[in-house]
Design a protein that fits this description.
InterPro entries: Glyas_Bleomycin-R_OHBP_Dase, Glyoxalase-like_dom
Order of helices and strands: EHEEEEHEEEHEHEEEHEHEEE
Radius of gyration: 18 Å
Organism: Reyranella aquatilis
Distance between the termini: 38 Å
Helix content: 10-25%
Structural class: alpha+beta
Protein name: VOC family protein
Strand order of the largest sheet: 2-3-4-1-5-8-7-6
Number of strands: 16
CATH superfamily of the largest domain: 2,3-Dihydroxybiphenyl 1,2-Dioxygenase, domain 1
CATH architecture of the largest domain: Roll
Largest sheet: 8 strands, mixed
Length: 280
């Protein structure tokens, strides 16, 4: 059985129980967020939709007594790397045969207002078993209702973002950490890069690097590891124009932004502990 094709579906920022703050920050960063949605599992979200992938802010209501209380135990900030699946049953079977430690698929829904009427967005996810990765949540998402999620009216952002092109993970031993992705997508998907390994994921990539390499690329804009040796560190977005991104960040009152040719960097302390990079 063939391994799943590597495609990036979305990335997740965990706001724990403070969605109002997270939504304010990411709106000021120049993203157009969808209306707040409520999952059948008890979490809520806002999305920033791009061409074929998206960014998700996730949280639970303040004072929640049930539902996704696990979000309170996960690190604040960048906490989810989600790959695409066209068929979650096939994905689960193929990964299990390849020895990748995955849980059986779980299905859930979220009502979405589309053209004045409410429809249910339906998903099924295949997650890694607990403890497989030390730096966050890695899973696959199978969309049954893509037309309810990817809508052109939600794809226009003041910062010009059209795609996520890189997901950054810090790991003391990038080679050991990359083995999981070689098992998931095949050896040929993993490449050597300066200070670590890169996993080719469709038109984007996952870079697994040492903390020293992250600092070499981003200086003091890097996130606070909060005592963690391994963590999800940042995102690189493709923008239509670095100048447009810089203007949106200025309009949002985002401090500490640095600009160079075709590149704009937002320090992690301004973006819920994830360093953000916009490139043309």
């Amino acid at each position: 059985m063939k391994l799943p094709l590597a495609t990036l579906d979305h990335v997740v920022i965990n706001a724990r129980d403070d969605m109002d703050h997270a939504a304010d920050v990411y709106t000021r960063l120049g993203f157009s967020l969808t209306e707040r949605g409520y999952h059948s599992l008890g979490s809520m979200n806002h999305l920033a939709m791009f061409g074929t992938d998206y960014l998700e802010l996730i949280a639970i209501p303040k004072d929640a007594q049930s539902g996704r209380l696990d979000l309170l135990t996960f690190p604040f900030g960048l906490n989810g790397l989600v790959f695409g699946s066209e068929d979650s049953a096939v994905t689960y079977e193929a990964l299990s045969k390849a020895g990748v430690p995955v849980e059986a698929p779980v299905e859930f829904t979220r009502p979405v207002k589309v053209g004045g009427e409410m429809r249910d967005a339906r998903f099924r996810t295949v997650r890694m078993k607990a403890g497989v990765v030390p730096y966050g949540r890695v899973y696959y998402c199978h969309h049954f209702t893509r037309d309810v999620v990817w809508r052109d009216e939600w794809r226009h952002h003041a910062n010009g973002t059209v795609a996520i092109v890189r997901f950054l993970i810090v790991e003391p031993d990038p080679s050991a950490a990359a083995k999981l992705y070689a098992d998931m997508f095949g050896e040929e998907s993993v490449r050597d890069i300066q200070g670590g390994k890169s996993v080719v994921v469709g038109n984007s990539r996952v870079d697994i690097v040492t903390e020293a390499e992250l600092k070499a690329q981003f200086g003091d804009a890097v996130p606070d590891p909060e005592g963690r040796k391994a963590y999800m560190a940042g995102l690189t977005f493709r923008t239509l124009s670095a100048a447009k991104a810089a203007r949106a960040l200025q309009a949002g009152g985002i401090a500490g932004v640095t600009e160079s040719a075709g590149r704009v960097v937002v320090p992690a302390r301004q973006a819920l502990n994830a360093v953000l990079e916009f490139i043309e």
